[in-house]
Structures are given as structure tokens and as C-alpha cells.
């Protein structure tokens, strides 16, 4: 008899977060690679919809100035006709994602230098989408939910608190967070995978991105236990200091906002809390014994 966690769900909700920040190394070297990666993500998304008729999908584009839904479209759905025998839903997903991604890239401020990707905010948007799907679904429907991050950006300690808030919220809501890294090792996101029971994979070659997505991230959480998948490896749970963005083994933590610093400071640079510094202990003089 199978346990509840091993029983396949009636419906699966998948949220894909695609990092489209132009300062990613693989994009700066060859901007055309982004098109190939996007095609792989679209094929992976359609494979998810093909598994079950009740499956739900959302794709979020993450840029350096904002994050927004690429699919489903917030407004009226596009009028898509069947092309070369392609299933209409698959054609709708592909056309909507590509059109809204172009609008997202065009909306970026031209005078502003690209900064870090707003992945923490995109994760929060994904959790809100999953919460809405669960609220609108029938209570008798068993739904499994997961979020997949596809990114080539590096870790940033500036979003450390936001990351931790999202990770533990996902753990409480039983939402799996998976990470597919296209370039660098991401220790903070690997912590999120370990906390929520997800999978972390650094893709060795972008040419085989679709194969890695289908092999590792397409199966649901209940099905992964019966498959041979990459191990999580050793997870580095060291925190990054907010002053120099370096990983620490021992540091100082603000008791108000939980910011981490490598050196002591009387004022927290994050929340500007002033700490009371205890002075040296006063040595009480010994009482002299009175002579009788």
C-alpha cells in the first residue's frame, strides 16, 4: 500500500521562472543562445501540459527592473489558430510567451545599467499563483505544486532575507523549488532546493538543455523517488555577509532584522538599529575585615 506522498496527484501546477537579465554571461557572449534556451523551456512547458489535462502552467519572466507573467496572459488570451497540425494550446503557450517576453525586454530602462535579477520577487509571484490555483480548485482534487528556476545569474546576498522568507513559505505550503543553473554554482538557491525537497542541477552544456529539463525536472515529486536522478550533493549553508557579500562561518547577526556581518558595528546598516555596548565590568572593592 502506497503512502499519501507516493500517490500520483490528480493535477500538477508548475511555475517556471526564466531569468532574462541581459548581463548573464551566456547572453553577453552570444545573445542568440537565449532563443535556444527559451525554445527548450517552451517545449518543456508543453510537455508538462501534455501529461495531464488538468495540469496548470505559469511562466514568469525575471528581469533586472521587474518580473511579470509571460503565460498566462493577464488580459484576453490571444486568438491562435492551428498551425501545421500543432495542438492549439501548445501554439498559444509558445506565441504568448515569445510576444510578452519581447514586450518585457523592450520595457527595460535604456539609461539604466542592468543590475541583479529579481528572482526572490519572481518566486513570491509564483507562490501567489499556486495559492490562487489551490483556492479556486475543488477540495477533493489532489494538487502537487512546484517552481522551476532557470537562470544563469550569480548569487546575491542583497536578497538573502527575501530568499529565506520565500524558501520557508514554500516549505510550509509544500511547494517544491527546483533550480536549473545555466552557468554558475548557486549556493543560496541550492539551500532553497534542500529546504523544500527540490532538485538542483548545474547544466554542463546548454546544447542539451531540453534533455536535462525533461529528464530531471519533468517528473513530479512522488515519481522522482522511483527514478535515478542527480543527487543533491553537499549543501553549503553558510550565510553571506551583507557588507562584503562573502560567505561566513562565524559572524555577527542583527537581533532585529537578522542581517549578517563579518565585523562588529554599533549600528546595523540594514535597519539602522543602534546597539547598546556594554562597558567593562566594574570590580567591586573587597570589604576590609574589621579588627576586633
TrEMBL record:
Keyword DNA repair: yes
Pfam families reported in the protein's UniProt record: Tfb4
UniProt entry keywords in alphabetical sequence: DNA damage, DNA repair, Metal-binding, Nucleus, Transcription, Transcription regulation, Zinc, Zinc-finger
GO terms assigned for molecular function: zinc ion binding
Annotated InterPro entries: TFIIH_Tfb4/GTF2H3 (IPR004600), vWFA_dom_sf (IPR036465)
One of the GO BP terms on file: nucleotide-excision repair
Gene Ontology CC: one annotated term: transcription factor TFIIH holo complex
Domain of life (superkingdom): Eukaryota
Subcellular localization, as worded in the UniProt entry: Nucleus
Principal cellular location given in the protein's record: nucleus
Self-association state and partner proteins as the record states: Part of a TFIID-containing RNA polymerase II pre-initiation complex that is composed of TBP and at least GTF2A1, GTF2A2, GTF2E1, GTF2E2, GTF2F1, GTF2H2, GTF2H3, GTF2H4, GTF2H5, GTF2B, TCEA1, ERCC2, ERCC3, TAF1, TAF2, TAF3, TAF4, TAF5, TAF6, TAF7, TAF8, TAF9, TAF10, TAF11, TAF12 and TAF13. Component of the 7-subunit TFIIH core complex composed of XPB/ERCC3, XPD/ERCC2, GTF2H1, GTF2H2, GTF2H3, GTF2H4 and GTF2H5, which is active in NER.
Family listed: Belongs to the TFB4 family.
Function noted in UniProt: Component of the general transcription and DNA repair factor IIH (TFIIH) core complex, which is involved in general and transcription-coupled nucleotide excision repair (NER) of damaged DNA and, when complexed to CAK, in RNA transcription by RNA polymerase II. In NER, TFIIH acts by opening DNA around the lesion to allow the excision of the damaged oligonucleotide and its replacement by a new DNA fragment. In transcription, TFIIH has an essential role in transcription initiation.
Designated name of the protein: General transcription factor IIH subunit 3
UniProt source species: Pieris brassicae (White butterfly)
